[in-house]
From TrEMBL:
Annotated source species: Streptomyces sp. SID12501
Family in the record: Belongs to the glycosyl hydrolase family 6.
Keywords: Carbohydrate metabolism, Cellulose degradation, Disulfide bond, Glycosidase, Hydrolase, Polysaccharide degradation, Signal
Region called Disordered, residue ranges: 18-93, 318-343
Gene3D superfamilies on file: 1, 4-beta cellobiohydrolase (3.20.20.40)
Bias (Low complexity) ranges: 36-64
InterPro entries in UniProt: Beta_cellobiohydrolase (IPR016288), Beta_cellobiohydrolase_sf (IPR036434), Glyco_hydro_6_CS (IPR001524)
Keyword match Lyase: no
Name of this chain's protein: Glucanase
Bias-annotated ranges (Basic and acidic residues): 22-34
Length: 382
């Protein structure tokens, strides 16, 4: 099967970025408009052989990074995604009133300044008005607590649940398009502690370091063990700071590692411990169908073990038509929005469908990486 790494392209500390959650106030005590990074871009890794029976599909973009270089996409066919399935014809589920739409995002900026654009009503209704994640992809220890607090306090004031993405682990993306992060693990541990200090005491969903586990083969055995120890520590720090925080660990996606292999890696990173984890996330910035991810995530959770309450969340932001048959990951044509963000999935062990990648933020082919591209957003939404 094809293993693909998510590569995120973050444009510095862009003000409209990875988040767009339900309505609510955005300011915190420290700053009303925190700087957050835009949602990342994912690129696939070279194909590898595996005994998995999971359909072979290539991975696509994910969170935010600091560079604009991109890896060549994998062209391995995706048997599970050659034709739009039943999911493509289903109407999105109603948006959960519990998820928070952060009022500072690139899509909201575009809607506000393009009131006469004929595409605006569709983009506004189908993307801008829906909750999405807020990414923190730059290593800024001095401001991270206040920036996180600005989002969580706004969500608490609105009675909603924010989705946050810390993305600063050292050697992220193995030096690929989303390279960056903290200079070393000691610095990262301190950054996470500061991040945790901004969580407050209300419910929050944390998507902990996309690709940090599924894409760890580039590390030596010792480096991988150190990273996993740091991720386990991160989960404990986040949950100790806010007992109502729900922390999810990187499970890649249904076309990457086998469930058994991914579960073994997750276990080493603390994902089976209630002290650090509430479960796993999959499909971040990717295109694999929700039904495929549900089956894959349940297999991962079964193999992972741990408390019975561990669940999974799935990024459904761009998976309405599944993954392209040619394996393209960079703003591929013919994609559409997936199921709307909600915490009411009706599926056992599936805690939420989330928009972790903000639809319309380019992977770098239809616009500058990490920036909102109206034509791409409109194609996804219509």
């Amino acid at each position: 099967m094809v293993a693909a790494a998510s590569v995120v392209v973050a444009v510095g500390t862009a003000t409209g970025l990875l988040s767009a959650l339900d309505d609510g106030r955005g300011g915190g005590a420290d700053e009303a408009r925190p700087e957050v990074t835009s949602s990342p871009l994912l690129a696939p890794l070279p194909a590898v052989t595996s005994a998995s029976s999971t359909p072979s599909v290539s991975k696509s973009p994910s969170p935010s990074a600091r560079t604009t270089k991109a890896k060549k996409p994998s062209r391995t066919p995706s048997p599970a995604a050659t034709e739009p399935g039943p999911e493509a014809k289903q109407a999105p589920a109603a948006v959960s009133a519990r998820l928070y739409r952060y009022p500072d995002s690139q899509v909201l900026d575009w809607v506000g300044t393009h009131r006469d654009d004929p595409r605006r009503p569709v983009i506004e209704a189908e993307i801008a008005d829906r909750p999405a994640a807020v990414w923190f992809a730059d290593f800024t220890p001095s401001t991270i607590a206040s920036r996180v607090r600005a989002v969580t306090s706004g969500a608490a004031g609105a009675g909603r649940v924010p989705v946050l993405v810390p993305y600063a682990v050292p050697d992220r993306d193995c030096g690929g398009a989303s390279e960056g992060g903290a200079p070393d693990l000691d610095a990262y541990d301190g950054w996470i502690d500061a991040f945790a200090a901004g969580l407050g005491s209300d419910e929050v969903i944390v998507i902990l370091e996309p690709d940090s586990i599924a894409q760890s083969d580039c590390l030596s055995t010792g480096q991988r063990a150190d990273r996993f120890a740091s991720l386990a520590r991160a989960g404990r720090a986040l949950k100790a700071a806010d007992p109502n925080a729900r922390v999810y660990y990187d499970a890649g996606h249904s076309g990457w590692n086998t469930p058994a292999k991914q579960a073994a890696l997750l276990r080493q990173a603390g994902a089976a411990s209630a002290a650090s984890s509430d479960g796993v996330f999959s499909n971040v910035s990717n295109f694999h169908r929700t039904d495929d991810e549900i089956g894959y995530d349940r297999q991962v959770l079964d193999a992972l073990g741990g408390p019975a309450g561990l669940g999974a969340v799935i990024d459904t932001s761009r998976n309405g038509n599944g993954a392209p048959a040619d394996g393209e990951w960079c703003d591929p044509d013919g994609r559409k929005l997936g199921r709307a963000p909600t915490t009411n999935t009706g599926e056992a062990r599936i805690d939420a469908y989330l928009w972790v990648k903000l639809p319309g933020e380019s992977d770098g082919c239809k616009g500058t990486p990490g920036t909102f591209t109206a034509s791409y957003a409109y194609d996804l939404a219509r």
